[in-house]
Write a structure and sequence with these properties.
350 residues; mainly beta; Immunoglobulin-like; 3-stranded antiparallel sheet; 10 strands; elongated
């Protein structure tokens, strides 16, 4: 018995389309700085199955007719190898040699590696196995493939757009997943734009998670700049005081410090390498919210080598202004010539 695979390329095209997401024929909508619009969802998504069409003859090359028991298996090698998928036996109708079979292949076997199809008809294993070759454009799905083009020449300015419909929130769900033991699971590079851009209305535009059990060993997010800003946060929320729910940068820690900044002290300019620099109508606004009375501080400033706090106002203004009803409580006040005191003031004598 013989089979001739006349339409195998059409089959692989179907598989390639399946790998592109199976989200229906819906053009993605533009996502930019403007408010998010409604994203159309597909009426129905396609399944994992692909269609196999073939031509079967007998040993004299005469086309077959009738119903035959067929079995399809996919391996990762031309001979031997590992069985990746097995259809089991099914009854297939053959008319004048032509037949069509629906193969419910799981998509996880399409990872860019070579695949070989073995076919059994009425208990007879046909040889050799048929290599599952991709259609030309499907080569863009193989590992290491590069997709090139001009963004403004494609719909909605995206070279690759992946959408996922899922109302249930979970951290293990995502439209795109990257995984690596070393290196970058997801890497973005933009000479003059955004290497990675995220937008959301009520969620997290970019979410990072460090699941390590050892403190100070991992980073949920790590940002580095050779000569610019490591992290820049901006909020366009309406002004209110204090608008703590819409900050440019927000940090929270259940066991440590919500936001930690450190200046490099390894060179001769270490005096000016501030761990944190704040600028605005009020350079720094600190508020203690501890409900246990004397246990909270609006700001707690400490130095193990030098001044705990250095304050300098503009000409004719206070270096520091304290507006509480009880003033300042300290262990002692001295002129600036003495250093081992809780509060050192310039009284004009030194």
């Amino acid at each position: 018995m013989k089979t001739k695979n006349l339409l195998f390329q059409t089959i692989i095209i179907g598989a390639a389309l399946l790998l592109l997401g199976g989200l229906g024929a819906v053009w993605p909508q533009l996502v930019g700085a403007n408010p998010l619009g409604d994203v159309l969802g597909p009426a129905a998504t396609i399944g994992d199955a692909i269609t196999y069409q073939g031509y079967a003859t007998d040993e004299n090359d005469a086309p077959l007719d009738g119903t035959f028991t067929m079995r399809f298996q996919i391996y990762n090698a031309k001979t031997g190898g590992t069985l990746l998928w097995d259809s089991g036996n099914s009854s297939i109708t053959v008319t004048d040699g032509l037949f069509e079979a629906r193969l419910d292949i799981t998509t996880d076997i399409f990872n860019g590696e070579e695949l070989w199809l073995a076919q059994t008809i009425n208990g007879e294993l046909l040889t050799p196995r048929q290599e599952m070759l991709p259609a030309p454009m499907a080569h863009t799905l193989r590992p290491g493939a590069i997709i090139k083009g001009t963004a403004n020449a494609v719909p909605n300015n995206y070279m690759l757009d992946v959408q996922m419909n899922n109302d249930a929130f979970a951290f293990n769900r995502g439209a795109i997943s990257g995984q690596t033991t070393t290196g970058n699971a997801v890497y973005g590079l933009a000479a003059n734009g955004r290497a990675i851009y995220g937008q959301t209305e009520n969620g997290y535009a970019i979410y990072g998670f460090d699941g390590g059990s050892t403190a100070n060993q991992g980073y949920a997010g790590y940002f580095y700049s050779t000569n610019g800003i490591g992290v820049y946060g901006y909020s366009g929320a309406n002004r209110s005081h204090p608008n703590i729910l819409a900050p440019g940068v927000y940090g929270q820690s259940n066991q440590g410090v919500g936001v930690y900044g450190r200046g490099d002290t390894s060179d001769s300019y270490s005096f000016y390498n501030e761990g944190g620099y704040f600028e605005g109508g009020k350079g720094l606004y600190a508020r203690g919210t501890d409900s246990t009375g004397q246990q909270g501080y609006g700001a707690r400033i400490y130095s193990d080598q030098y001044r705990g706090m250095y304050a300098q106002g503009g000409s004719g203004w206070y270096d520091a202004y304290f507006g509480g009803s009880a003033g300042i409580n300290t262990n002692g006040v001295t002129d600036r010539s003495a250093a081992a005191q809780s509060l050192v003031a310039n009284l004009g004598t030194t």
